[in-house]
Specification:
This protein has 9 helices and 12 strands. By secondary structure, it is α+β, with helices and mostly antiparallel strands. Strand 4 (about 135-145) and strand 5 (about 150-155) form a beta hairpin. Helix 1 (about 5-55) runs parallel beside helix 4.
Length: about 350
């Protein structure tokens, strides 16, 4: 039987054990809280660095490949994929795996909806339409653009139970950053597309034409092509006689007449003011080329421009250079075509000039 004296002596020991337990629990809680804060701070710091990195590369068409590379480096995963809706029926599908059309958006949307999904199993995941053959862990996070669901970012790893709550949280933060990057990228693409087209005539600008032609020439084309310099005859007189509004409308309507007669591979641009330039390779002989350009000239001449009761017609002069006979560089071809255009003007305008 325990004496009263022993009970009294043991009381401080029990209280001390309780106190130690409470201290340890509080210490563990504070440590866990500190670890969580440190982790969140690390995420924030990493995201800031990633954001700065991505913003310097927003003009890069491979921006989503860059994000995949960042995800692979941060998470240590084997596969990273971004699939986002680009328009109603088209999707950007970017992965570090190039072996196949990697993700099926409609299947995934039907299967997972607009929620985060985490899948793990001991055996290989048997969902071939959305994963790689050796994946055992898969983590997907929805991407929203202006509150509209546009796709997923998906990470995969060959190990079972690879993704913990911290990785899920971090991927969510990265997906939010991806959404902002996607928004900025789409805005940039829209602005870039607008910069390539003349806002009044809705044809390519001179700079974009030069850019495309340089790419064509650098590939050393096997098929002959022609550059055609085109100029509206007496355009200053048209503006002076009918006004600048009529002049702008004349350029628009004349441009549309030419566009209707061009082939899919032809490239047509505003070179400056009332001057245009055309690239074409849709001919098998010089005679066929001249016939094509003569058809353009006659169609412009026959077209009647009417604006607010004022009627008139315009004519155009055409100067042609042919690759590789009249030049093998863009500058030499442009200079030759410009000389042919000057010759057409000197010979009475409304003519096609070519070096036969």
């Amino acid at each position: 039987m325990t004496s009263s004296k022993n009970t009294i002596n043991n009381t401080p020991s029990i209280e001390l054990d309780v106190y130690k337990k409470l201290v340890k629990e509080e210490s563990d809680r504070l440590k866990q809280q500190n670890d969580s804060l440190q982790y969140k701070l690390s995420i924030t710091s990493n995201l800031l660095d990633i954001s700065k990195y991505l913003n310097t590369r927003i003009a890069n068409d491979n921006i989503f490949n860059v994000i995949n590379d960042v995800a692979i480096a941060i998470f240590g995963v084997k596969y990273s994929t971004i699939i986002v809706k680009e328009s109603e029926n088209t999707y950007l599908n970017i992965s570090n795996v190039n072996s196949k059309n990697y993700k099926n958006f409609n299947f995934m949307h039907k299967f997972f909806g607009e929620e985060t999904f985490l899948i793990s199993c001991k055996q290989k995941l048997n969902i071939d339409s959305i994963k790689e053959h050796d994946s055992k862990s898969l983590l997907g996070y929805p991407i929203f653009r202006k509150k509209e669901f546009v796709g997923y970012m998906i990470l995969e790893h060959p190990y079972e139970n690879f993704f913990d709550t911290h990785k899920v949280h971090f991927l969510g933060a990265l997906a939010d950053l991806l959404a902002m990057t996607y928004e900025n990228y789409m805005l940039y693409k829209q602005l870039d597309e607008k910069s390539k087209n003349d806002p009044i005539l809705n044809i390519l600008t001179r700079a974009e034409f030069i850019n495309r032609l340089n790419k064509i020439i650098n590939k050393k084309p096997q098929k002959d092509f022609a550059l055609v310099m085109i100029d509206v005859d007496n355009f200053k007189h048209i503006n002076d006689s009918h006004g600048h509004i009529f002049g702008d409308s004349a350029l628009i309507q004349t441009t549309n007449v030419i566009k209707e007669l061009l082939n899919e591979n032809d490239i047509f641009a505003r070179y400056g003011g009332d001057e245009f330039i055309l690239y074409t390779n849709s001919f098998d002989s010089i005679k066929e080329l001249v016939t094509k350009i003569e058809k353009l000239r006659m169609s412009v001449e026959k077209n009647t421009i009417e604006v607010n009761g004022s009627k008139s017609s315009v004519t155009m002069s055409f100067g042609i250079s042919v690759y590789p006979y009249d030049g093998k560089t863009l500058d030499s071809l442009l200079n030759f075509a410009d000389n042919m255009l000057y010759k057409a003007k000197e010979n009475g305008k409304n003519k096609v000039e070519i070096n036969l």
